[in-house]
Design a protein that fits this description.
The protein is 35% helix and 9% strand. It is α/β, with parallel strands linked by helices. It has a single domain, classed as Rossmann fold, CATH 3.40.50.720. Strands 3-2-1-4 form a 4-stranded parallel sheet, with helices on both faces.
Length: 218
């Protein structure tokens, strides 16, 4: 695997170390009963077929492990610590790929590998964050929630045409960016990312970090 130690360190620093420092410092500012969330990608740490992902996949797996350790450490303060693992999302890293790659990924998943028949949107992830930040989720901690339209449930060792087929679903409108100066809102929960925290203190802490050029093809 052609990856330098500097690239490995960049991935680990931007994910696992960033979460370690961020969650530890945030927990000191939080009231009891707060929420800490990590945005991860479980398949990157579970499988090994996407070789260029070796550093970032390992770093994401380390971040999920940290969530479980923090969940236990902060449980007596009723601070929950969870991770969200999105599937393929419109208006995300997907859009940085070539048009040909985007087309292949969409056709692959919309053709049956996502049981719900379409890619997700940023609002789908925002709704999952809102769910885990709600009072009703106060007894959920140390978990990784897959938000992927059921993609992680599909069995990859059997061809798709040998698995139960679902009727084709009408395609949803793809996510569009908000206009200049406007707030991106969730169509279901009315979440605005421009909304300031209450009382000036963070109740929920969501960490998503990115690293550029941390891997090279094997």
């Amino acid at each position: 695997m052609n990856i330098t130690l500097d690239q490995w360190d960049t991935a680990m620093n931007s994910q696992a170390k960033a979460f370690l420092v961020g969650a530890r410092e945030a927990s000191r500012l939080m009231h009891d009963g707060g929420r800490i969330l990590a945005i991860t990608y479980t398949p990157g740490g579970r499988f090994g077929s996407w070789q260029p992902w070796v550093a970032m996949g390992s770093a994401k797996a380390a971040m999920e492990s940290l969530c479980r350790y923090f969940a236990v450490a902060l449980a007596r303060r009723r601070i929950t610590v969870n991770a969200i693992s999105p599937g393929w999302i419109e208006d995300s890293v997907l859009n940085t790929l070539s048009k040909e790659a985007q087309k292949k990924i969409r056709e692959w998943h919309e053709g049956g590998w996502i049981p719900m028949g379409h890619l997700g949107t940023p609002a789908d992830i925002g709704n999952a964050v809102a769910l885990l930040c709600s009072e009703e989720a106060s007894w959920i901690t140390g978990q990784t929630l897959a938000v992927d339209g059921g993609a992680s449930l599909m069995e990859t060792v059997m061809p798709l045409d040998m698995q139960p087929r679902y009727p084709s679903l009408p395609k949803r409108k793809r996510f569009s960016r908000p206009r200049e100066g406007g707030a991106a809102r969730s169509p279901r929960l009315g979440i605005s990312r421009n909304q300031p925290p209450k009382n000036g203190l963070p109740r929920a802490f969501s960490l998503q970090t990115h690293a550029k050029s941390v891997t090279q093809p094997s």
